[in-house]
Amino acid sequence: MKLSVLAEKLALKPVTAMYDKEISGVYISDMVSDVIANAKPGDLLVTVQIHNNVIAAANLVDIAGIVVTQGKLPSEDVRKMAEKAQIPIFSTDLSRWQVTTMLYEAGVR
Amino acid sequence: MNENRWSTGEPRVPWEGAEILYSEIYQIVGDDFEHGGEAAAKIKAILKQFGLDNTVIRRLSIANFEAEMNVIMYAREAEMQLQVLPTAVRVILSDRGEGIPDIAQALQEGYSTATPQMRQRGFGAGLGLPNIKRNTDEFEIISTPGVGTTLRYTIHLQS
């Protein structure tokens, strides 16, 4: 499923420029070492962590995009870094669990 | 000097005198969270240019990120040297820092000395060294308490 389609279905707010991609799966974690070791290329990362080291880790393992939950917003520096890596970030007020169920309902399996 | 050593994997290429196709050194500064992951990103870009297998690039990137963040979190400074060989890629990371008093303990999954601030940023899972071990074919730790730590890790390329 395309990131743009998911963003619309879940009413996710883009906080960076959009780099539309097909996502191959989802990984949900707030531990950086867990993300880098276990997320797969093309995964959508759902997390509350939104600092530059997470973007660096996401970029190293080719994460397709990031959904930041609980209404958190990345700083300007983090947004620029994500744009340089062409990893779009979306924000939502929903919890990780709510995002998870909505992703499933949207057809992400 | 009470040096602690630990290693795993069967050494295939000698550390001295091996043919090196490409080598580069990156500086890492302790507490520099702002640039955390940049050395790993630069190395990834170079390995892509060499046309290495994606799995090899991924494994080395994971090891490099963990090693780099370890310096930023626990050491004062370090040099990270990438070496591309005909049959392997490897990294030598030498830091000046407090060293690792008990390497076996540091290698245990879940063991961490991260501060609350580090944990807030999503570090401190106790997965750093285990992630390096899991993603490399050879891994050696040489640490002198009060002086610093050297990590050497290698990924073999399939012929």
What does the model show?
The complex is a heterodimer of chains A (109) and B (159). Chain A has one domain (3-105): HprK N-terminal domain-like (Udp-n-acetylmuramoylalanyl-d-glutamate--2,6- Diaminopimelate Ligase, Chain: A, domain 1). Chain A is an alpha/beta fold and 109 residues long. In chain A, helix 4 (76-84) links the parallel strand 4 (65-68) and strand 5 (89-91). The model of chain A has no long low-confidence stretch (mean pLDDT 96). Chain A has a five-stranded mixed sheet with strand order 1-5-4-3-2, with helices on one face. Chain A has helices at 3-9, 32-38, 52-60, 76-84, 96-105, and strands spanning 13-14, 25-28, 43-47, 65-68, 89-91. In chain A, helix 2 packs parallel to helix 3 and helix 3 packs parallel to helix 4 (76-84). The longest helix of chain A is centred in the C-terminal third of the chain and has 10 residues, at 96-105. Chain A has five helices and five strands. Chain B is an alpha+beta fold and 159 residues long. Chain B has a single domain, classed as Heat Shock Protein 90 (2-Layer Sandwich), CATH 3.30.565.10. Chain B is 31% helix and 31% strand. Chain B is built from five helices and six strands; from the N terminus they run E-E-H-H-E-E-H-H-H-E-E. Chain B has a six-stranded antiparallel sheet, covered by helices on one side. In chain B, strand 5 and strand 6 (148-156) form a beta hairpin. In chain B, helix 1 runs antiparallel to helix 2 and helix 2 (54-74) runs antiparallel to helix 5. The radius of gyration of chain B is 15 Å and the shape is globular. At the A-B interface, helix 2 and helix 3 of A face helix 1, helix 2 and helix 5 of B.
